[in-house]
Amino acid sequence: MTPHNTVHLSSALDRSALIGMLAQLKTKRWFPFKSDSIVDARLVDAVPDTMEEGESAIVIVDISTTSGGSTIVITPSACDSGQYSDAVENGSISSFMSLLATDDAISGSRGRIAIRGPYAEEFQSYMATHPVITPLNVEQSNSSFTVGDRYICKVFRRPISPRNPDFTVPVKLYTKTHFRNIPRPIAQLIHEPDPLLSVASIQENVQNDGDYWHYFLELSNDLIGRFTHGGKAVVEDIVGEITSAVNELAGTVAEMHRALFSINDPGFGHERFTSGDINRIKRRYMDLASAIRRTSISLSINGRIYDSIDFYDLIRNFVDNFDFSPLYEVEKIRFHGDLHLGQILRTERGPIIIDFEGEPLRGETERSALGCVLKDVAGMTRSIDYALSFYSRADNDLAGETRKVSLNLREVFLRTYFQKSSGLPTIPGDFQEFMNTAAYYEVEKAVYEANYEMNNRPDWIIIPARALVETLSGTGSSKKSV
């Protein structure tokens, strides 16, 4: 490569070039301001600052949009004939990763990116053999690629501090407890000194048969076929397979929470709920409800049309009359924060839980806060309902049949989780109080889902909307479930 092919990013990436580079990212799932235009972009750092054509760098940009939104984003970039592209998607991120084989830190235009973690040297030794980088072209809120067949690296497109729970929580679980239903955390890439950011995490690449979301979708599709064409015995066989998986998942989630409860390091531990916590829970709930009210929802559910005001009234009445007193006997701990079927892999080692970063659109403080483990439980039961309802969402009759199965599976999950969590002060000790409190978190999750679907996947909104109507109005197939 001749010298004139060298690109000095700190001078080449001016405001106009950065806006052009980022414009193509508006369609990405992780991009937070899809409906806005980028009005300003400032280069925070480019690591390394100099690259040749076909090589890559980690570009950190501070952006502002027409609505006044502002955030820092990370865009791994490659340059070919003056055109910038995503270095993860095209695989050229390998040039950046190869630098880590010999250096603990890579200098940029204003700072550096360092590799830190319990098994960083192991990873560097492996990188020295020049393993193949393979992008994982799946729709996620971050970007991931495998390194050889041993590791997987996730780039945090909207970075937070090195206290990122996606790395710190698995490290604590792996080094402080015997819980092993997680990939082994290897290291993280940290931008320093200012701003101090978690750029990427590296973990063990666990061989798997896919995640439980796709597994449940396949079984759900089979179930729909049996409902449509008869065959009760085969229906029972499929339901039995799903039930077995639900029991195993509930036990694994309970074991994870038991392990997290045992960690007493700073930022972990456990605390009792306070009246301030309850007030914050209600405010968050009503913020979600108000967002529903501002939408233009109009859905036919069980023979009646429900609009946004109807949903708001149901949601508000539920929280106004809900008994939060059992939470005063419960202790808050660290938890997963965004647990669902898609965050758990099917492996020979059993269910492997991944992606501890929490809800990506939440702030760092909220994602790392102590809270109620029933948020994780609700994430699982709502995800099971999603999978069972997915293929029947447009057919009221089939939706009724699959909702019955879903509600039975909900009870299976909750009963198994309650039994496996016996003695832990993280849930109400009385089973009925536990079930009722779980129902609150499920409703909150469904309201969150309805908001998300309205803004991103309108065709899917019927799934959380049906669950909300049947749960909160006491009608339909869920009448006996809460």
Can you tell me about this structure?
It is built from 14 helices and 19 strands. With 482 residues, it is α+β, with helices and mostly antiparallel strands. It has two domains: 202 residues, no CATH class; 267 residues, Aminoglycoside phosphotransferase (APH), C-terminal lobe (Aminoglycoside 3'-phosphotransferase, Chain: A, domain 2), CATH 3.90.1200.10. A seven-stranded antiparallel β-sheet has the order 7-8-12-13-11-10-9. Strands 2-4-5-6 form a four-stranded antiparallel β-sheet. Strand 15 and strand 16 form a beta hairpin. Helix 6 packs antiparallel against helix 7, helix 8 runs parallel beside helix 13 and helix 11 runs antiparallel to helix 12. The chain starts with 6 loop residues before the first strand and ends in a 9-residue tail after the last helix.
How many separate helices?
14
Distance between the termini: 68 Å
Helix content: 40-55%
Strand count, sense and barrel status of the largest sheet are: 7 strands, antiparallel
Query: Which fold name is given in CATH as the topology of the largest domain?
Result: Aminoglycoside 3'-phosphotransferase, Chain: A, domain 2
Name the overall outline: globular
Low-confidence stretches: 475-482
The tally of strands reads: 19
Q: Which value, in Å, is the CA radius of gyration?
A: 24 Å
Decide which structural class fits the backbone. Answer: alpha+beta
Task: Give a quick summary of the entry.
By secondary structure, the chain is α+β, with helices and mostly antiparallel strands. It has helices spanning 9-12, 15-23, 94-99, 120-127, 165-176, 212-229, 232-261, 275-293, 308-320, 364-367, 374-389, 396-420, 431-456, 462-473, and strands spanning 7-8, 38-47, 50-51, 56-65, 70-80, 83-86, 105-107, 112-116, 133-135, 143-147, 151-155, 185-192, 197-204, 271-272, 298-301, 304-307, 331-332, 344-345, 352-353. It is built from 14 helices and 19 strands.
